[in-house]
Amino acid sequence: MNPHTTAGLLVALATTLARLPWPLLRGLADALAWLWRRVDARESRVARRNLALAYPELLPSQRAELHRAVLRSTARQALETLRFWTRPPAQNLALLRSCQGAERYRQAQAAGRGVILVAPHFGNFELLNQWLAAQGPLAIVYAPPESAVGDAFLQRVRGADNIRQVRAEGPAVRQLWKALRQGGTVGILPDQQPKQGDGVFAPFFGIQALTMTLVSRLAERTGATVLMAWCARTGPDLEFEVRVEPAPEDIADPDPVVAATALNAAVERIARRDPAQYQWTYKRYTLRPPGSGEPNPYQEPTPA
Q1: Which residues does residue 212 pair with via DSSP β-bridges, in sequence order?
Q2: Nearest residue to 261 via CA among 194, 197, 192, 211
Q3: pLDDT tens digits, residue range 174-192?
Q4: Nearest to 164 by CA among 124, 190, 192, 136
Q5: Best label site of 16, 66, 69, 234, fewest CB within 10 Å?
Q6: Which of the 8 DSSP states describes residue 275?
Q7: What DSSP letter does each residue of 185-216 carry, written as one string?
Q8: CA–CA separation, 195 vs 14, rounded Å?
Q9: What 3-state class would DSSP assign to 172?
Q10: Residue 304 predicted with pLDDT over 60
Q11: What's the gap between Cα 216 and its chain centre?
């Protein structure tokens, strides 16, 4: 079957599911989180390992409680996102209770130098995309799924007015450069592990993590304004807030390690606002610094 046809069927299925009342969807999400823990699914294992790495100071009981909260939040976000993808943006944006920093963003747009919005995997970044698109055209960088069907699905559900999706591949930098030179806005998720050679190691929650240099390169070479942005959940019943804040100046430092360190520190500060809303189910520390001898922390030790 043609990938676009299959993607259309998936969109129809997602739309049907997302029409269920939110209390029921929330219950389904909580059941999914319980199942992840029960069978020790990948999401559960990765989140547990990340929390052990990032929060060594917590008591085992405290980490276990945070682990449950992370999985519950992750499952709820997945079903929230289905709603946002399959309902009119205006209906979704009505769920925002506040937009702190909106005027700062508009002033940056009006300056005409281009805007780089750094949006960590915190809260619901899909709703953030829709809010940003309501303010004007936006180019977002994304890692395309390996499946053609998955890519076609994303093109359908994210293809709202004012949103242009840019694949995180070789030509992407040129497209982003052009958009910023024309005074446009570029949205980048900064906390995904790049390929070896495409980033530098910098501390994140006290651990060296391979970190992208795309943000610093674009900022240094274009002079664009860099802002941090996120959309956080403020209640259990589809209540959210958008926040936009200035990024640290060092994020555009010509030294890539200095810039990456500033970037990770800014992301960490946001994640610590409510750790349960951060993306702890992602393998952030897979690649280790060359020559360190450190093993991949997500690999199970080989039995003796």
Answers
A1: 199
A2: 211
A3: 888 899 999 999 999 999 9
A4: 136
A5: 16
A6: G
A7: EEEE---S---TTSEEEEEETTEEEEEE-HHH
A8: 32
A9: helix
A10: no
A11: 18
Paired with 204 in beta bridges are 207
Q: Which stretch of 112-116, 158-162, 199-203, 283-287 has the lowest confidence by average pLDDT?
A: 158-162
What angle is formed at CA 140 by the lines to CA 130 and CA 45, rounded to 5 degrees?
90
Residue among 70, 82, 63 at smallest CA distance from 16: 82
Please tell me whether residue 243 adopts helix, strand or coil conformation. Answer: strand
CA 91 vs CA 85, 87, 96, 238, 248: distances in Å = 11, 7, 10, 12, 34
Classify burial at 156, counting beta carbons within 10 Å of its beta carbon; exposed 0-12, middle 13-18, buried 19 or more.
middle
Burial profile 206-243: b = 16 or more Cβ within 10 angstroms, e = fewer: ebbbbbbbbbbbbbbebebbbbbbbbbbbeeebebbbb
pLDDT tens track for 39-93: 999 999 999 999 999 999 999 999 999 999 999 999 999 999 999 999 999 999 9
pTM for the full model?
0.94
**Which amino acid type is present at position 300?**
E
Write down how long the chain is: 304
**Alpha carbons 57 and 79: distance in angstroms, whole number:** 32
Q: Give the distance between the most distant pair of CA atoms in the chain.
A: 63
**Cβ-count burial of 37 within 10 angstroms (0-12 exposed, 13-18 middle, 19+ buried)?**
middle
